[in-house]
From TrEMBL:
One of its GO terms (cellular component) is membrane. Belongs to the NhaD Na(+)/H(+) (TC 2.A.62) antiporter family. This is Na+/H+ antiporter (NhaD family protein). GO terms for biological process: sodium ion transport. It comes from Neptuniibacter caesariensis. PANTHER family: SODIUM/PROTON ANTIPORTER 1-RELATED, SODIUM_PROTON ANTIPORTER 1-RELATED. NCBIfam families: NhaD_1 (NF038006). Pfam families: CitMHS.
């Protein structure tokens, strides 16, 4: 190895070793946290979080990406936390706690990055576009499209995620709905409820379920116990809303799209990656992210194969390419470096991952972690789980998810670490997953579809059917409680 390269990376290596030693020293011993909720800096941290989240909630109106204010809020909250502890004479606890939350985020970040890359790659290979095209070309009636899109949203979201699934099925509803605005409205609501419900019984369906799984609180196969409750949660409002659908003829394109070369192989690599992540976690107790990153490596190798066997193109395609001059200059290049003139480039696909979501998740984890270190989550846990009771508190978590967002709510619950059995952890997973369906702004799927079907599917149009969704939400909870003898 080049000695210059060794010197360049030596400081980073030393920093890694020092941080690893520090982490090994702390072990799993609980940090000696102090109640600083009544301190000036503790109150300031809460104010910063509220202001930051108001910007997040106003994303649709001020057009400021949600990751920006919440990342700034995270940094300011930890400054307040560090100063508050320093004033007590403790200059170590805040830093140790921050490293713990950063490490927790890093594991989830890599997992989500791998999963998003697979979804984005399948999108680039026209897997989802081909499915959408097939549904449109079949010329199903509007009523059939309503049930097919809802059913597929429920089935696909546990494997992919509720956001991608909602966008895919929403495109189908808009393509065939055309001037049937009532159909587009109820079709989008049906998709949001189905995608959120389907994502609740799988670790891969939503970030909240992923967090619960990676914490080791619920095993992979145990999530399937939520299947009956999630089906009820979706079917009841779906049946109620289906009665207002005008069963008219569909509209839309008649040309059939086909998947690109390698699409089927990528689907199998994705399924293999999920299997590897699950089995390595359940049998060897290894972090699931190891399996996901291994699968991502295999995907990159296959991407290299595609870059060698696809024709050179001169026009702008689905993924950005260099200009004609660059193609003439670099056409002799081979391997990964030659991807500048190839149709497929796996690193360009990685660039198209939802970085705003990943950075927003960083901000949420660090904000909630800072408030937890200041003692606020302990107070909140005593108020909710000590005052209301476990079941009532878990039901309220779902309602809070509709008003705010299920990611910070669920992470707050996980940080509280309430003493609950499996049935209660499944209940809070259910409520956090499907509770966001009560309002259009309560889930990423709803917010995304409001942008996709702008002016037709709105907050108000969703609110008109919230009563039906609430009936399904209550019925799903009752079903889960009955099946687990929680009455």
């Amino acid at each position: 190895m080049d000695p210059i390269m060794v010197l360049r990376y030596l400081p980073a290596l030393l920093l890694l070793l020092l941080s690893s030693s520090a982490w090994a020293f702390t072990g799993k011993d609980p940090l000696l946290l102090v109640d600083l909720t009544h301190s000036l800096f503790g109150i300031a941290a809460v104010a910063i979080f509220v202001i930051g989240y108001l910007f997040v909630l106003g994303e649709e109106f001020i057009h400021l990406r949600k990751s920006k204010p919440i990342m700034v809020a995270a940094g300011l909250i930890w400054l307040c936390t560090g100063i508050a502890y320093a004033l007590t004479g403790d200059t170590l606890t805040a830093g140790m706690a921050a490293r713990q939350y950063i490490l927790e985020y890093a594991e989830l970040f890599l997992f989500l990055l791998a999963a998003m890359t697979f979804i984005t790659t399948m999108e680039e290979r026209l897997v989802f576009a081909a499915l959408r095209s097939w549904l449109v070309v079949q010329r199903f009636s509007l009523r059939k499209i309503y049930w097919i899109t809802g059913g597929l949203a429920f089935v696909i979201s546990p494997i992919a995620d509720n956001l991608s699934t909602a966008l895919l099925m929403g495109a189908v509803v808009m393509a065939v709905g055309n001037h049937y605005h009532k159909f587009v409205t109820v079709g989008c609501i049906n998709i949001v409820v189905a995608a959120n419900a389907g994502g609740a019984f799988s670790p891969f369906g939503d970030i909240t379920t992923l967090m619960v799984w990676q914490k080791g609180l619920v095993e992979f196969e145990q999530f399937l116990q939520l299947f009956p409750a999630t089906v009820i949660t979706w079917l009841i409002p779906a049946i109620i809303m289906s009665r207002c659908i005008e069963d008219g003829p569909p509209s839309g394109e008649t040309n059939r799209l086909h998947m690109k070369k390698g699409a089927v192989t990528i689907i199998f690599i994705f399924l293999f990656t999920i299997t590897l992540a699950v089995l390595s976690h359940s049998t060897l107790n290894l972090p699931p992210v190891l399996g996901m990153m291994t699968g991502l490596g295999i995907l990159k190798l296959f991407g290299f194969y595609l870059s060698q066997h696809e024709p050179i193109v001169h026009e702008q395609g689905h993924i950005s390419h260099h200009h004609r001059d660059n193609i003439q200059t670099h056409k002799h290049m081979k391997g990964d470096h030659g991807d500048v003139v190839r149709r497929f480039n796996i690193f360009k696909v990685v660039e198209r991952s939802s970085w705003d979501t990943l950075m927003f998740f960083y901000g949420v984890v660090l904000c909630v972690g800072g408030l937890a270190t200041l003692g606020y989550l302990t107070v909140l846990s005593q108020l909710m789980y000590g005052g209301f009771g476990t079941t009532q508190a878990n039901i309220l978590v779902g309602i809070a998810s509709a008003l705010v967002d299920n990611i910070p709510v669920m992470f707050a619950v996980l940080s509280m670490e309430p003493q609950m059995d499996l049935s209660q952890w499944l209940l809070v997973t259910l409520t956090a997953g499907v509770g966001g369906s009560l309002l259009s702004v309560g889930s990423a799927a709803g917010i995304a579809l409001m942008g996709q079907a702008q002016g037709v599917y709105t907050f108000v149009s969703h609110l008109k059917w919230s009563w039906a969704i609430a009936i399904g939400y209550a019925a799903g909870i009752i079903t889960h409680m009955y099946l687990h003898n929680m009455f």
